[in-house]
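Researcher: I'd like a structural prediction for the single chain below. Treat it as a standalone chain; there are no partners to consider.
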Amino acid sequence: MAESACPMNGGDGTYSYSKNSTWQRSGASAVKDLINEALTENLEIDKLLCGSKRFAVADLGCSVGPNTFYSMESIIEAVQQKSSPKKLEFQVLFNDQIGNDFNTLFASLPQERNYFAAAVAGSFYGRLFPSSSIHIAYSSAALHWLSKVPEEGSPAWNAGKIHYNGASDAVVRAYEEQFEEEMEIFLRCRAEEIVAGGIMVINMPGVPHRDVPHRAAVMLSFIESILIDMVKERVVEQEQVDSFNIPIIFPCIETMRRVVEKNGSFENVKMEMVDGRAHAEAESVVMHLRAAMERTIANHFGNEIMEQLFARAMQRKLHFTQILGGTSSPASIFVVLKRK
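Model: Treating it as a single chain, here is the predicted structure.
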């Protein structure tokens, strides 16, 4: 995942990702039938395996669970239905940043599972697996994290803001260009690792058009407003806010389509917008933001302000509810690619 962003909160405590990732689980559930359909129609197991029984599935950006277990089990179930009565041996490769809490991930692995599990630590913006070794690659709620914030010469190039939402067009373009460059690297690496005829499934937050703000981007702007208030009260320094930018993008589907076509290694089997189905109260939203963003924010501002930052967010939950009420439902770009 991202090098300038820290992994999700580990462990299984109150602010952990494992306890505050039901949105991501809902997003995975929303596309379960679409994945099942895509695998049923496009997976040619005999050609993929060439007599071998080993079937490898990789989850890119798995975090600490339990969502990854749900997704991997769903994919394996779909493959088993396709391969019956052939007996396959499944290997699931859980990938995330080196700093990810793999201890919690593996401690919570389902006791009764029908696959062998292994961890592969490292950024997915680089090679992770041997050539032609992966049969299905999967990534959900992860590829919107960039490897780094776009560099524009000055530490304060996006002064007063922590994201491209509501920023100048130059800032927006910089994020878009960074995304296109990194997606090309991502696709090029996966093209080396996925066997011919193998499938890659991507489910990531995105928007139908460039000028439509994603709901999650509005949430980041809410955190930004609290940091600005803390600057006014001299709790944090202005230069700290000016030099902080979150390496997240919510791309439009046309950009995603263009990057895949430019790469040329994959057949675009399916690419469509999927509406989010999750509804959450403001308190839950703040908890989810904390689980996902706390370590990245603390890495820049220090741990000292974290309690105050998110306490203020809770105190402003009514305002937050009003903001969220004026935005559309969260949406994602669902992609199925087949290695040529």
